[in-house]
Specification:
transport, MetI-like_sf, ABC transporter permease, transmembrane, MetI-like
Length: about 325
């Protein structure tokens, strides 16, 4: 198994190396710059000499070797717009994105898995047909549309939940009150993402479960007189779980890109919203840092999912 693992590790190492090269090169190829975004076209008019001086000041002439050395030391540069270290800004925003996206993926995966198993077990029933139709319809609704509808209903019309932010500013809450305030702000963006991800998990689990319903080992389990729930989950759902594990890794790897719309819509202070602001301001050090951090996190998570998949399905590790 160890010998078969080396090609996988080598591929991930090459991918990480390519990401480092691209993260160093791409900002120099993008149109626009920090000076254009902040000073040109505004109330303050700069002459050509001052503009050239500012561009030289904010430009990066760092070599690739110096770039790698700085990354290794934990120096990811400073945000041009905010004047703070990039790594400090990422560290402040990442927990919010992890809370939002992690909760959304966990709830949508668990809910889609259980619902998919139960509905597949009742194949051909009105419940199964209605659930498939509803989930297929829901899967086609974009996050922006569902988020706007939830925002209009629960935040603006009913005023049950806050419309933006992650916490009530200057409230001085602590303990249980702080936690409840956090959950109230989390509710709408979380529900938006769960509605976006749950249908796909449900449909995939149902399809995988239908493939194993007629398997001989299920008939054997039934013949042994095992309880239906044990046949359904211990012998059936366990084998339908593998495609969902792969989907979980792929969906979670889109953590930042998936958060762009929702975090911007609800003004949630995560990496997605921070990236949108950095790009709008041509804050290339910050944008580059977020993209690099997200990409390396994706690689690490994808590797973890692949190793987990090998453990769940020994045929993969043995090349069967």
């Amino acid at each position: 198994m160890r010998g078969k693992l080396w090609p996988t590790l080598t591929a991930y190492a090459l991918a990480a190396s390519l990401l480092l090269v691209l993260s160093h090169a791409l900002p120099r190829l993008l149109p626009g710059d920090f000076v254009s975004a902040h000073w040109q076209g505004g109330e303050v008019v700069l002459d050509a000499d001052r503009t050239a001086d500012l561009r030289e000041r904010f430009a990066s002439a760092e070599s690739f070797g110096g770039y790698l050395s700085a990354l290794a030391r934990g120096d990811w540069g400073r945000s041009l717009a905010l004047g703070k270290p990039v790594l400090e800004l990422i560290a402040a925003a990442f927990p919010w994105t992890l809370l939002l996206m992690g909760s959304a993926h966990l709830l949508s995966t668990l809910g889609g898995f259980i619902a998919g198993v139960e509905v597949a077990w009742r194949w051909g029933s009105p419940l199964e047909k209605g659930s498939v139709a509803a989930m297929s319809l829901l899967e086609g609704v974009p996050e922006l549309v569902s988020g706007l509808l939830l925002l209009l209903l629960f935040a603006l019309r009913l005023e049950w939940l806050p419309a933006s932010g992650a916490q009530t500013a200057y409230a001085g809450l602590a303990g249980t009150d702080w936690l409840l305030d956090l959950l109230r702000h989390l509710a709408l963006p979380l529900l938006t993402l769960v509605l976006a991800y749950l249908p796909g998990n449900f449909l995939l689990t149902r399809a995988s479960m239908l493939l194993v319903l007629t398997a001989p080992y299920l008939e054997t389990a039934r013949a042994k007189g095992l309880p239906p729930w044990r046949v359904r989950y211990r012998h059936g759902a366990r084998n339908a779980l593998l495609p969902l594990v792969t989907r979980f890794g792929l969906r979670f790897s889109l953590m930042v890109t998936g958060a762009l719309v929702v975090e911007t819509l609800f003004a949630y202070p995560g990496l997605g919203r921070l990236l949108v602001e950095a790009v709008a301001q041509r804050d290339l050090p910050l944008a580059r840092g977020i993209i690099l951090f997200s990409s390396l996190s994706v690689l690490a998570l994808s590797l973890g999912v692949e190793l987990l998949y090998r453990r769940l399905d020994p045929r993969v590790s043995h090349g069967c």
